[in-house]
Structures are given as C-alpha cells and as structure tokens.
C-alpha cells in the first residue's frame, strides 16, 4: 500500500532537498515521487543528497502544474506548518497516515509538500481534502523539507507495519527462551543458600533480603541461559565455604 | 520533561550532521545536546545547517569519552540500524520514547547516536539498557543521522504531548530511585573483579560473560538500594579469597 502513496513536492527551491526527500522516502519504503515545477532540477546536489536513493529520483515524474501530478488520486492531504483560518480540517501525522493508507486500498493518494519558505498557496490547498500539521515547537516550528518528509514517511511506514509490530516486542530477551517458573525458583533457593553460606543473609530476617532480590530479578524475566550463568557464579562463590553452625 | 532527555552524538564524522541534529531537536522542543569526540567540530557547516537552532549548538557540551556524557543518567538507550548477534533488547521509536519520558520524571536520560557509517561499538552498546531501531526499509535501511534524530525527537515530542509517557517502569522499581550510570558502572567493575577472584571469569574471554551480565542487569534498571545490596553480596563473596596469580 505504501506504493500507492504519491509524495508531491511543489515548486521546491533547493534541489538538495529533493534528494533528501527521496532518501527519506526510500528509507521508509515509499517509492512514488512527483515534482511540480522544481527549481534548478535535475542537479548534482539532488543526486548527492539522495545517496543510495538515486533510483527513486530517476523514476520521479516532473509536472508543470499540480493538477497533473494529482491525476487519479482520491485523497489529497497537504502539509502545512502553520495554523490557517479554519477552512481545512487539520490532522496530526499519525491520523493522516491512517487516512492515507485506508484510502490507498482503492487507489493512489497524494501527500503534498510546499515551498521551503512559503509552503502551499491557498489555490494549492484548495486541492486538498485536509491538512497535515507536524506539532512542532511553537517557538521554532519550521522543519527542513526533508525532515518533514522523513516524519510523514515514517508515520506511513509505522502505520503500514502496525499489524505485525505488535508481536515484535516479544523478542526483548534477544530470542532466548525464558526460564520456566520452577527453574527460577531453584535459582532463588540456591541464591538464599549461598547468601547464608557467605554469612550475608541475616538469619533473623531472611525474608526481607530475599524479597528484595526477587523483586530485582523478577523484573528481568530471566532466560534459561541466564539462570545457568547466575547459578554458576553462586557455585563458585560458595566453593570452600562451610555452612555456618546453626 | 523533554529537557531531561540528553541527545548524545558519538564521534560524529560530518559536522554538518551535528547542525542538522540540533535543528531537528529544537523543532521538537529538545534542548540538551552532548557531543563525544566530534570530528571537525565546531565548524561553519554545523552552524549553517543548524539554521535557527544555533543557540542549541552554542550550549552543546563536548566530552572526551562516553561515560562523561552519561554522568547522572538512569536510562540510556542506543540507536542501532542493524540486528546484532548477541542481542540487546530492541525497542521501536514509540516505545523508546515512552520509556525515556517515563524515566525522565526522576532525572536525566540519554539517547545515543553512533558514527554515520559504523554506528555504536559493542563497548558503547554495553552502556545501554536497550537499543532503539527505526523499522526502515530492509533494502535501504540506513537513515541520515539528522533524519534518525528527527524521527526520534518527533516521537519524544508526540509522547510528551499525548501525556502517555508509560507509567511502566516508574512503578516497576517500587518507587525507589534508580541508580545513576556511574554507580552502575562501578557495580559492573566490582562484579568483574569479584568473578575474577572467584575464578569464574575466563581470563581469555572476559568480555563475553560481562556483556551477558550487563544485558541481564541492564534490563532491570537497578535502583540505588539494589546496587548497594549487590555490592554487599560481592564483598562477602570475595572475603578471604586471594586474587589469583596472573
């Protein structure tokens, strides 16, 4: 569905920014770049900043007016740095990404970026169903064009991936198998014995320390390998020590 | 809370990228930039790319080593483009932002960005509690440094604005204060010494075991009290043992 999202740069002033946008798009799996009246383009600077995304630049389509770039699109969103009179609905990037990808199921959609200094004209905004606003620092709100494209492309990719992103976080322990309850309990028993042998555990109040240590290791969700390492350390620590007389 | 998030650039090669990161940070309301051994910095190119964020560059602190940049930090996350063999816990940017801001309630936290070509070394990753991975296009996954900083800064701002900084980890440690970076490093040094004294550490390959143990305790985010307990155990374990002859 990311292939259905058309990124349209309108009248870009600095060709380097076109390259930066191409790189940001390719990094996030987008591929369909359209340029409306780009200034000083094509240029070596655009290619240099595109880095490994020059294939995407080479396939970019150049148009003489915005309407030509929007042919076939059913949903058009325009990025806007500032609040305007409430003529257009405003979305945050995440909501915009969800709307674009929902619409992209049935055909191409477009996301417009205006000129570096002045953005999109009212006539261009008239082509948009809604505006997208990156909620930047009000005291310094103007993002570089490539940076704004990076944020929106990132949200589009995250939205596309979201279905399978949910499962991803399970891999926290690096793919190792978590230790089953009974192994962890044996580790705690071994730890308690060893602390007694080391004369560290207060025999009058053993539970307090063990509870604290359980709380510590309980937060980790130990793996099988980690339990083995920790028990190896305990065995070495106790070696040659005698259990104190009761 | 965004003021508590330290952005740490390690050994950046192109000073222009330092400026690009400063601009991305200021756009998103971040302000605390730290540079570890930046190449060719300060430079006119950094200032030019910072655009209106030169105040943030002027306040940036330059350090000679990473530990100096992390003093006082309770949570350290490292950005990483690729999967590693001995894996650290991996977060997506949104989850990372929630964890950083949750921890930032009680003090400074850090987000590390490595060198443009080679990222962070394993020794630098050892300082991290977890890694952050921007889920990029697998066929073209390397983001420009300023673009990666833009994505993470954006997620931090969105999280801050949404007020959904995870309650997660604050409650996990039972309201106790987390140990700062330098205390945890002293614990690791003590642990390594003790394991050597106990003859548990393989002197031919000390790093492998220590990296595994760092990964284990890194997931816990030790509190100050817990570090004290663990070091008390280490002291008892080493008592009466002699350092083996080299």
TrEMBL record, chains A, B:
Alphabetic keyword roster: Cytoplasm, Methyltransferase, S-adenosyl-L-methionine, Transferase, tRNA processing
A Pfam short name: SpoU_methylase
Ranges of residues in domain tRNA/rRNA methyltransferase SpoU type: 5-154
Record-level GO BP terms: tRNA nucleoside ribose methylation
Reaction catalysed by this enzyme: uridine(32) in tRNA + S-adenosyl-L-methionine = 2'-O-methyluridine(32) in tRNA + S-adenosyl-L-homocysteine + H(+); cytidine(32) in tRNA + S-adenosyl-L-methionine = 2'-O-methylcytidine(32) in tRNA + S-adenosyl-L-homocysteine + H(+)
Subcellular compartments: Cytoplasm
GO MF entries: RNA binding; tRNA (cytidine(32)-2'-O)-methyltransferase activity; tRNA (cytidine(32)/uridine(32)-2'-O)-methyltransferase activity
Gene3D superfamilies cross-referenced by the UniProt entry: 1.10.8.590, 3.40.1280.10
Domain of life of the native organism: Bacteria
InterPro entries: Alpha/beta_knot_MTases, RNA_MeTrfase_TrmJ/LasT, SpoU_MeTrfase, tRNA_m1G_MTases_N
GO CC term, one of those recorded: cytosol
UniProt EC number: 2.1.1.200
Subunit structure: Homodimer.
Function: Catalyzes the formation of 2'O-methylated cytidine (Cm32) or 2'O-methylated uridine (Um32) at position 32 in tRNA.
Membership in a protein family: Belongs to the class IV-like SAM-binding methyltransferase superfamily. RNA methyltransferase TrmH family.
Descriptive protein name: tRNA (cytidine/uridine-2'-O-)-methyltransferase TrmJ
């Amino acid at each position: 569905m990311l292939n259905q999202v058309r990124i349209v740069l309108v009248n870009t002033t600095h060709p380097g920014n076109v390259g930066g946008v191409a790189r940001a798009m390719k990094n996030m799996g987008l591929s369909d770049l359209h340029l409306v009246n780009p200034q000083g383009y094509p240029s070596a600077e655009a290619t240099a900043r595109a880095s490994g995304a020059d294939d995407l630049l080479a396939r970019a389509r150049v148009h003489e007016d915005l309407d030509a770039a929007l042919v076939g699109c059913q949903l058009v969103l325009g990025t806007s740095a500032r609040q305007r009179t409430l003529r257009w609905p405003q979305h945050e990037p995440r909501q915009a990404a969800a709307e674009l990808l929902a619409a992209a199921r049935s055909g191409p959609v477009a996301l417009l970026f205006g000129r570096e200094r002045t953005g999109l004209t009212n006539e261009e905004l008239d082509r948009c169903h809604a505006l997208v606003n990156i909620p930047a620092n009000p005291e310094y709100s103007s993002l570089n064009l490539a940076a704004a494209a990076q944020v929106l492309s990132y949200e589009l990719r995250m939205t596309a991936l979201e279905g399978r992103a949910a499962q991803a976080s399970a891999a926290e322990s690096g793919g190792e198998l978590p230790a089953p309850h009974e192994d962890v309990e044996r580790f705690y028993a071994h730890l308690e014995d060893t602390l007694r042998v080391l004369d560290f555990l207060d025999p009058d109040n053993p539970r307090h320390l063990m509870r604290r240590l359980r709380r510590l290791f309980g937060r980790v969700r130990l793996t099988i390998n980690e339990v083995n390492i920790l028990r190896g350390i305990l065995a070495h620590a106790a070696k040659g020590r005698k259990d104190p007389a009761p």
